[in-house]
Amino acid sequence: MAAKETMTAKVMRTLRQYQMLPPKTAVLVGVSGGADSTALLHWLALHAQQLDISVAAAHVNHELRGAEADSDEAFVRDLCAKLGIPLHILHADVRGEAQKTGEGLEECGRRLRYAFFYKICRQYAGSRIATAHTLSDNAETMLLNLARGAGAKGLAGIPPVRENVVRPLISVTRAETEQYCREHGLLYHTDRTNADVRYMRNWVRLKIVPQFHRIDPNFEEAAGRAACALREDDECLRELAQQALRTAECLGGWRAGVLAQQPAAVRMRALYSAARSAGTGRLSRQHLQMLDHLLAKGGGCTLPGGCSARVERGILLFPEPAEGYAVPLQMPQTSLPNGRILCIQTIPKEKIPKEIRKCVFSNCLDYDTITSDTMVRSRRAGDSFSPAGRGVTKSLKKLLNEKKIPPSLRQGLVILSNGQNILWIEGCGPSEQAKVTPRTRCAAVVTIKECIGNGKSDAR
C-alpha cells in the first residue's frame, strides 16, 4: 500500500498546480485562531524562505462573542509574536453594521473581512490573500449548493484561486490540519458556535457529512475530485460562452439569432455574462430562462438591479434610460453624462491608410471640419443627415430605420455636430462634408469607450 501523502506534500502540490504563490509574493493570511488558520499560518511561516515569500497575518474581531472573541484575538497576537509574523487587526461591529445594511451576520462579517484584507493588500504590489478553507469546507459548500439547486459552478464548491485570494489548504481535510497542529505542538481555539446546529453549515458538517462517510470514508477526497471535474467543465463552457458573445457582438448588444444557435449550456452562460456586464443584480435560473425566451420571441423583461433587457430587430440589448445631452468636444477625450468617453486620435496625411481615403473606415472624418464650437450630443427631433458617399440628405429617423438600429438604442447614439450640421454619428459614420478625401491634411479617428458594466465592449 502506498504511503499516505503528507499535508506538506499536498500543500506543495496545490501551490504548484494553481501557481498560487510566485516567488517574491507578499502573502496576507486570514487567521481566526482555529486549527485550520493556525496550521496555515505556521506552515507558510515555516516554508517562507523555501518559497521565497513574505508572510503577514490579519485577524478580525467581529465583536459578536464578547470575552471569547477577545480571547481569540489575544491568542492570534501571541501566535504571531512567537512566529515573528506582522499582524493587522480590525475591530468590527458586525451586528450593528448588519442592522444598518439588512445583511445576515455571516454575510456582513464576510464582507467586512475581505474589505479589510483587500485594504491591507493594496499596500503591497502583487500580494495574495491566503485563507484557510480546506477540503472539508469545500465538501460542505458543495452539499449546501446542491440543496439550493446550483449549477456546475456552485457544485464545484470553493475555487482554489479567486482573483488574488488563494486557498493553499483546499486539498487538505480538517482532520489533517488538526493533526498538523498536534504534531507541531500548536494550540488553537475552537469557536463554541461551531457546535450550534442552528447554523446550516454546522448542521451539514455534524449531521449530513457523517452519513456520506458511511458510503465512503474518504468522502471529502471524492467530493474534491468531483469539484475539480465540474470546475474544468464549467471553465470550458464559460470560454465557449465568451467566444459566442464575441461572435454575436454588434452595435449596442448581441445578435439574438447567433446566441440562439448555441447549445443550452453555452447559451445560458453567455446570457448570464451579458446581463451581469450590464450591471444586473444576482440572477436566478428563472431570470436566465426569461432572457432565453427573448432570443426566440423578442420583447423585453425586467431584471434584478433595476435593469431591463430587450430583443429588438434581432438584437439583444440592455438599454439604459437615455436623457438628452450636449457637451463641448474636448481633445483628445470627452466624458459623456452616461459614463461613456468619446476619444479622438489624429492621423497626419502621410499616415492615412488608403482605405480611409476611400472612406471605408466609418470612424474617420476630416479633422479640419472639427471647429472650436463642435459639440458632442444626443439625437434631437428634426435631425437630418447627409451620409458620406450617398449623395442624399435624410431624416435621422429614416436613416436609423434603414440601418436597423433598435429604437431603444437611438437616443444613446453619440453625435458630433457644428450647430445644426452633423459631422459624424455613431454607427453611421461621417457626413458628406466631413468625410476624408485626398485633400484631407489630417484625419480624426473616433472611438467610444464604454463605462464598466454597461453591457457593451470597451471601445468601438
UniProtKB/TrEMBL annotation:
A biological process from GO: tRNA modification
Catalytic activity: cytidine(34) in tRNA(Ile2) + L-lysine + ATP = lysidine(34) in tRNA(Ile2) + AMP + diphosphate + H(+)
GO cellular component entries: cytoplasm
CDD domains: TilS_N
Compartments where located: Cytoplasm
Domain of life: Bacteria
Statement: the UniProt record of this protein carries the keyword Nucleotide-binding: yes
Binding site for ATP: 32-37
Keywords of this entry: ATP-binding, Cytoplasm, Ligase, Nucleotide-binding, tRNA processing
Protein name: tRNA(Ile)-lysidine synthase
Species of origin: Caproicibacterium lactatifermentans
